[in-house]
Design a protein that fits this description.
binds pyridoxal-5'-phosphate, decarboxylase, PyrdxlP-dep_de-COase, PyrdxlP-dep_Trfase, 477 residues, Aspartate Aminotransferase, domain 1, globular, alpha/beta
Length: 477
């Protein structure tokens, strides 16, 4: 019966319905379970066959609103500490809706000078925020994975050119293997980027001094000195298990001395640069050849949001432009078509939430958020340290706290099993969310605190839930 052409335009009404739900949903977020396992059955309401005749705008949006706000994971609330997942600031969230409202085709300048200009401004503000030179080129990406891909694609272009090959035109076939060196902190997404670029996921040479993955700088230095041609170094600013950093300044020195490319994966760690209390962790990042980070983590803009910066701006166009299609705009320095500068073609105007959050809260807002999270992480670190049945496994440096439950006197293999169970129970419980990892061979919890809504009360609750479940499990041992 219903098709969008003969239904009266109900978009405004449907948006109003979502906005009304948003009021109560957001107000209720702090009091909800992060995920309520009892709502899994609601997912069935998504199912069924493709409707032959649609149910109409209002009915389908009403259904989806119900399912999403009931069975969805409330990860934008204050107690989701699993992975590294940020929330959405009020300004960013509203701007994200606006992005859909005006639905810009933001890859090509002629389709939306507005979106292109907003992206240029957002990138300029981000460089300023992170202390990166304004001369760097940049592009917004869907994620840090794509930002790593972007930086490493530029590295690859640069490296191939040193071998006399235009890799954009001719590919890798006539080239040797590109040397890529990193510490044990290298993130799987950097490997995935290398895999997509045709270098192979496992070609990264890892120089780690121990099981934590911390860099073995002398070994990396020796390897660099032994290489004939240019190499690519991946430095990791903020690793996901304990929030540690590679020594970026030293890597920049090495890259300079050996003519190597330095790519920094700063998905969340780049934000250390916005506070004088933590900026030492990323000292030297302004000397990198390429830098990747996420917006949807610590900037607290909605998914999907990442950004890449490159010291030599032309490389973006050379790695990603040159479509050779007569209907697409050629690279132009003032009327920028961002699809020439990154891996995507058509793309949404993801600059808008970034612009809005930076405009709304400014440099001081970003700094205050990072410092609050640092304080909360330090607070959690102290709670862990003072509890006789908990063990802090790494010093708290930024926003990740790596620890495990360790009842006094329990044998190591039982401690392992206990923490594996604890990880499962925590997610099943649903009051708070955190994930486990393997850190120096030990199963550990690694909550990441990067959501603007999180308060000390949430952290205290997190800790008491972990302790409660840990005690219950160890009693039944
Ligand atoms: C999250 C993360 C990534 C990947 O980011 P996505 O946004 O998930 O693609 C890369 N590196 C580090 C260090 C990360 O924490």
């Amino acid at each position: 019966m219903s098709d969008p052409l003969n239904e009266q335009d109900l978009a405004g009404t449907a948006l109003g319905m979502v906005a009304t739900t948003a009021q109560s949903y957001l107000a209720g977020l702090p009091g909800r379970l992060v995920h309520d396992p009892a709502t899994t059955g609601v997912l069935d309401e998504l199912g069924g066959d493709l409707p032959e005749h649609g149910e109409g705008t209002l009915k389908s949006i009403e259904q989806l609103t119900h399912i999403a706000t009931t069975a969805g994971t409330h990860s934008s609330g204050p107690r989701f500490f699993h992975f590294v997942v940020g929330g959405a600031t009020p300004a960013a969230q509203a701007a994200d809706w606006l992005t859909s409202l005006v639905d810009q085709a933001s890859g090509v300048w002629p389709a939306s000078p507005f979106a292109s200009h907003a992206e240029t401004v957002a990138l300029r503000w981000l460089k300023d925020l992170f202390g990166l030179p304004s001369s760097y080129g940049g592009v917004l990406t869907p994620s840090a994975t794509f930002a790593n891909l972007t930086g490493l694609a530029c590295a690859r272009f640069w490296w191939a050119e040193k071998h006399g090959v235009d890799v954009t035109v001719d590919g890798l076939a006539s080239l040797p293997r590109m040397p890529v060196l990193s510490s044990g902190y290298v993130h799987p997404s950097s490997r995935k980027a290398l895999q997509l670029l045709g270098h192979g996921r496992d070609t990264v040479e890892v120089f780690a001094r121990d099981a934590s993955g911390a860099i073995d700088l002398p070994a990396l230095r020796e390897r660099l000195a032994s290489l004939d041609g240019p190499a690519v170094i991946i430095g990791n600013a903020g690793e996901v298990n304990a929030g540690d950093f590679d020594p970026i300044e030293e890597l920049a020195d090495l890259a300079e001395r050996h003519g190597a490319w330095l790519h920094i994966d700063g998905a969340f760690g780049l934000f250390a640069g916005v506070s004088p209390r933590t900026s030492h962790l990323v000292r030297g990042v302004e000397r990198a050849d390429s830098v990747a980070a996420d917006g949807h983590k610590w900037l607290n803009v909605p998914y999907e949001s990442g950004f890449a910066f490159v010291r030599t701006p032309e490389l973006l166009g050379r790695a990603f432009g040159g479509w050779n299609a007569p209907y697409l705009p050629a690279p132009d320095e003032t009327r920028i078509s961002y699809n020439n500068l990154g891996p995507e073609s058509s793309r949404r105007a993801r600059a808008l939430p970034i612009w809005a959050t930076l405009r709304a809260y400014g440099r001081q807002g970003a700094r205050a958020m990072v410092e609050r999270h640092l304080d909360l992480a330090l607070h959690l670190g102290r709670l862990v340290d003072q509890a006789p049945d908990m063990e802090l496994l790494a010093p708290v440096q930024l926003c990740v706290v790596c620890f495990r439950c360790r009842p006094p006197g329990m044998a190591e293999q039982d401690v392992e099993k206990l923490n594996q169970r604890l990880g499962e129970e925590l997610l099943a419980d649903g009051r708070v969310f955190a994930g486990t990892t393997l850190y120096r061979g030990m199963t550990a919890l690694r909550p990441a605190i990067v959501n603007w809504r999180t308060t000390e009360t949430d952290i205290d609750l997190f800790f008491s839930v972990v302790q409660e479940l840990g005690r219950r499990l160890s009693k039944s041992w």
